[in-house]
Amino acid sequence: MRKAKPKKLSWYAARCHFKSEIESKRKYRTHLWEEAFFLVYAMSKKHAERKAKHLAQRKKRTYKNFAGDVVTWRFAGVIDVCALTATSFHEGSEVYWRFFSREDGLDTSVRNKS
Hints:
By secondary structure, this protein is mainly beta. It has one helix and four strands.
């Protein structure tokens, strides 16, 4: 019986979204969203997604804004993971891309999924 060939590590770009939650006496009708891209070194796309989720969850933060409201940023989800063809990076390296039609628009965020 042959041994399985070890998987090679590759670079991936993971697109993640975060949602703000505001504790306030005033009623806020909108939430701010943040989109962040993580560079991940992983054995597969699924492995990269798990690593990105772990990294993104560590980014949770809470603070008081200028009005004294408590603002908490929470991880909302990994939106996309792209395998990168580059093996080393420098200024100008392309780390994320996607194709879309004009009808699709630019925003495919978590807001449409929650």
